[in-house]
Specification:
39% helix, Rossmann fold, alpha/beta
Amino acid sequence: MTQIELGVGTVEYRDTGGTGPVIVLLHGLLMDASLWDSVIPEISPHFRVIAPTLPFGAHRIAVRADADLSLPGTAATVRELLDRLDLRDVTLVGNDTGGAVAQLAAADPRVGRLVLVSCEAFDNLPPGLTGRTIAALGRLPAGLFRAFMQQMRLKPARRLPIAFGRLTRRGDRATRAWMAPILTQKAIARDSVRVLRAVFADRTILMRAAEDLRGFDRPALVVWAKHDRVMPPEHGRRLAELLPQGRLVEIEDTDTLIPLDQPGRLAEALRGFQSP
């Protein structure tokens, strides 16, 4: 992982290098860039891949006390990263809450193509039972939040519907690793409470973002878990319809975190979306 100093503080990111088209991969809440570990080897021969670890609760370096951790603030962090790395004609990909961030960052002129992968959209914020649970946890004091999260050391707790049980079918190893910073660093637990409060403070923001997507006149792909229990499949269809150049790919045998459950199918969809 490489580090860069941005407005929020130190951000880690993975950069495969190369001269191919640039693709930037964004993860969701209480996750890090390892969400994409099984996808990156399959697309790196075709793309220069950038995968930042956003300050979403599984980051390892605490952010600044004045950092804006809201969805617009995180979208601004992504835009700052693109600017600092001088990235252009980027394919911006977001899964879970990373897709919400991608919707808000899509208007940046550096973004040439947009891929939304089973993510919050429209009025689905917080998303489903899982989202409502973590939104409620974010209202706890940081110490109580960290104490509650200690049970995430146990696989049965991680597999509950209120945790990761409806997000991934095969990714428990990743979810266990994502919990480590919260469980071992008080500063990250404090950041996590801050980000959960900030992300869910404006629950209508994605309705407004959807209207803005109607003006995204560049290639767009929507990849959705066909039987997603957290991100409604009809939202994937609606997104593909409202994006002027949008098209939809639905994937079987996966929950929301398609990069964990079906990385090969997702990589195939991304390669097919590659610029000529």
